[in-house]
Amino acid sequence: MIYLQLSTGQAPAECQYFARFALRQMLREAEAAGLDVEILSETPSKHGLRSAVVAVSGSLQDNFAQRWLGTLQWVCASPFRPNHARKNWFVAVSRLPDFPALPEEGEVRFETCRAGGKGGQHVNKTESAVRAVHTATGISVRVESERSQHANKKRALELLAVKLAAQHAEQMGRHAADAHAQLYQLERGNAVRVFRGKTFAE
Fold it and tell me: Engineered SS bond to 129: which of 67, 144, 197, 202, CB 3.0-4.6 Å?
């Protein structure tokens, strides 16, 4: 299992617009390669996407990750500001730890509730769904995909660990950008993949 994070940081609307395309393209390519792919978290914005964490697994997961890790570049006139001079927009893709550290149960508050959706009377009678809240940060996840409360609780801890790892990576990225602004600008120009125009041709 590989965890990939897409992030635009504090970038403008154009980068967020590009990030939404990048996520969709990532999902399409993963499925075409026969990989299992799941969006673990995403932070949408008015214009697209600020960040997302995707889990990818399969025999070709490492080759797939190498195609995406680094800086993605989109060369196009702004779809939001027609007279804007800038035509280069960037999204960062980084790899999170393979096995994010699980938070201690004392750091997490669990809430149980009835699972929603289809499933007949059994779904409505049992409180198998679990919401886990990391008390220090307020980050939360809700899981109802498993049949038992115990299994949902375990899965919730795993997802919470990934979210915490993603937040930490994003904070470290912002710190590095602030501390090494010139280096950051240089890295943005060294894209691993370049897309062009309104159709995102590569």
Answer: 144
Find the domain containing 61 and state its range.
Answer: 2-99+182-196
Do the domain assignments include residue 186? yes
pTM above 0.85, yes or no: no
- Number of domains composing the chain: 1
| DSSP E strand boundaries for 14-69 | 36-44, 49-57
pLDDT tens per residue across span 121-157: 444 445 678 888 888 788 888 888 777 888 888 888 8
Compute the Cα dihedral for 51, 43, 182, 77 and give only its sign.
Answer: positive
Q: Which residues on adjacent β-strands are paired with residue 36?
A: 57
Per-residue pLDDT reduced to its tens digit, 187-198: 455 789 999 999
Say which CATH number the domain at 66 has. 3.30.70.1660
The alpha carbon of 198 is separated from its chain's Cα centroid by a whole number of angstroms, namely 23
